[in-house]
């Protein structure tokens, strides 16, 4: 067992450094005193450039954080994950999403014995899944693809299909149904026809209430509309192939229990992405992620972008006490990115005990939230500029646009730059409500273009960042026990909504249930 970050000697040194210097750090002064600050705190990684220099840290804090990571044996934990060790300790499983983008036949030092065989299975399934995706693309009768899934079986594919629309096959519409709320499925079903629709039922477990209810309703609708040939119009993506067969799904692409739900878009769960951007595009997506894997595996910690981001996250959460990180993608097609990152960070690291079950004495995952810029500027950026609390902010910008509308992209990029500048510079001249305190942090992440490869690399970067902060906090980032209790209670409450039975319920739940069931009057 490796020491947790708070158990290292650097922890107290970081606290002392924060009190002595970190608290009083002024970014404007830091830039004036250090001409090399941008160069030092920026980092090129495969497909992704990040400027971390407008953050409230200095070289000494970073050096201590790096020492802390070494004391926690972060590289050892990283290698254990890549090698297929059971790093998901509470479920006794590996977390091998990196294998899904590993080139055929590539062995890594220390690979667990099962990894070589697993890699062969990965490529056999990938080949079959991509052949199917190409067949769907070639089938002019199929105009609508409806993905039914939730959480990791929705957020990644949904985000990526929207992000990569410049690479999308024209003439196809992609719909994503996740919510148990029938309004969502109903409006999709109104817009499609059975003979031209492919339904993808995506669920690792094939037992998730929302997905199964939506799949059942889609099958019923298909039959009621006179749909012919369920085998042609429904396909299952799951790690529970037997369960999909019980559902009568004759065409299934499988994956493995060592793929976590929120890490699964690289597996068969990526089928909607593959249909949208084609087999070659999907292979580029995997290659971009693999390039980032190699960077994470081999770059020294001080020049390792996922590690540097994670250390900044720990500095902010545990020493500055920043409660949240706002995600502001300056690209309209990255609209679903904040939601995707919410699950990645908050389901992975939103935990109050370490992997041994011991209560943690420090804060863990920040709240992740956000919206694309420039929209956010006309909504919540007010709080970032002048609210009483400082929040972390991450701007994601793309240098090249994929549209030909003159002037728009320069305006967009100028706004992204200006926000980061304004947050840092502030404005001393005004007073009262015209005063901008400045010294507010931001990270600036830059992609040259929004391509399958750059998106793949960016997402792998975020996965590894979450893994690093989770490892340093001593957390198992790959389980999600926190979602179980609500699921169980909903099962108890569902029949009560018919009967109005409130026996044993607390006063509030009872009162609300009676109103919802129409028992106590509306
Ligand atoms: O709600 C938690 C969760 O288990 C997520 O981790 C997962 O991505 C989602 O539900 C969907 O699960 P499944 O793919 O098994 O339907």
From TrEMBL:
It is an enzyme of class 5 (isomerase). Its EC number is 5.3.1.9. This is Glucose-6-phosphate isomerase. Keywords: Cytoplasm, Gluconeogenesis, Glycolysis, Isomerase. It is found in: Cytoplasm. It catalyses: alpha-D-glucose 6-phosphate = beta-D-fructose 6-phosphate. Catalyzes the reversible isomerization of glucose-6-phosphate to fructose-6-phosphate. Pathway: Carbohydrate degradation; glycolysis; D-glyceraldehyde 3-phosphate and glycerone phosphate from D-glucose: step 2/4; Carbohydrate biosynthesis; gluconeogenesis. Belongs to the GPI family. The active site is at residues 347, 378, 487. It comes from Diaphorobacter limosus. One of its GO terms (molecular function) is glucose-6-phosphate isomerase activity.
């Amino acid at each position: 067992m490796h020491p947790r970050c708070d158990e290292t000697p650097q922890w107290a040194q970081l606290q002392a450094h924060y009190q002595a210097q970190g608290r009083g750090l002024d970014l404007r002064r830091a830039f004036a005193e250090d001409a090399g600050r941008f160069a030092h705190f920026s980092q090129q990684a495969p497909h992704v450039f990040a400027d971390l220099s407008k953050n409230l840290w200095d070289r000494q804090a970073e050096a201590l954080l790096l020492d802390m990571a070494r004391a926690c044996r972060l590289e050892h934990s990283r290698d254990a994950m890549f090698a297929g060790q059971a790093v998901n300790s509470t479920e006794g499983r590996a977390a091998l999403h990196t294998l899904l983008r590993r080139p055929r036949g590539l062995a890594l030092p220390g690979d667990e014995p099962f990894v070589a065989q697993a890699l062969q299975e990965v490529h056999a399934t990938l080949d079959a899944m991509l052949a199917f995706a190409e067949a769907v693309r070639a089938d002019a009768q199929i105009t609508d693809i409806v993905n039914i899934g939730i959480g990791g079986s929705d957020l990644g594919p949904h985000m990526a299909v929207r992000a990569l629309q410049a690479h999308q096959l024209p003439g196809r519409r992609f719909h994503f149904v996740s919510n148990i709320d029938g309004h969502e499925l109903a409006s999709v079903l109104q817009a499609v026809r059975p003979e031209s629709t492919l339904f993808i039922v995506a669920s690792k477990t094939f037992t998730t209430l929302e997905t199964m209810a939506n799949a059942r309703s889609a099958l019923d609708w298909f039959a009621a509309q006179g749909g012919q040939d369920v085998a042609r119009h429904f396909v299952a993506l799951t790690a529970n192939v037997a369960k999909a067969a019980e559902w009568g799904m004759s065409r299934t692409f499988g994956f493995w229990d060592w793929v976590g739900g929120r890490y699964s878009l690289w597996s068969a769960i990526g089928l909607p992405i593959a249909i949208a951007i084609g087999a070659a595009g999907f292979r580029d997506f995997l290659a971009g992620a693999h390039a980032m894997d190699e960077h994470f595996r081999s770059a020294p910690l001080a020049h390792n972008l996922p590690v540097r981001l994670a250390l900044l996250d720990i500095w902010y959460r545990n020493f500055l006490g920043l409660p949240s990180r706002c995600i502001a993608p300056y690209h309209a097609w990255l609209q679903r990115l904040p939601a995707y990152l919410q699950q990645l960070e908050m389901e992975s690291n939103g935990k109050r005990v370490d992997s041994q079950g011991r209560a943690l004495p420090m804060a863990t995952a920040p709240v992740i939230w956000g919206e694309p810029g420039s929209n956010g500027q006309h909504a919540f950026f007010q709080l970032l500029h002048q609210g009483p609390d400082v929040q972390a902010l991450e701007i994601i910008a793309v240098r090249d646009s994929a549209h030909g509308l003159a002037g728009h992209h320069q305006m967009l990029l100028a706004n992204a730059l200006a926000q980061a500048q304004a947050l840092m510079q502030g404005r001393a001249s005004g007073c009262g409500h015209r005063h901008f305190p400045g010294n507010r942090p931001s990270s600036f992440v830059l992609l040259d273009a929004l391509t399958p490869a750059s998106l793949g690399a960016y997402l792998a970067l975020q996965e590894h960042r979450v893994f690093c902060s989770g490892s340093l906090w001593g957390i198992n980032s790959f389980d999600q026990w926190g979602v179980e209790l609500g699921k169980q209670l909903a099962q108890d409450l569902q029949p009560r909504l018919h009967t109005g039975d409130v026996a044993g319920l607390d006063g509030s739940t009872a009162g609300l249930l009676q109103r919802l069931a129409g028992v106590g009057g509306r």
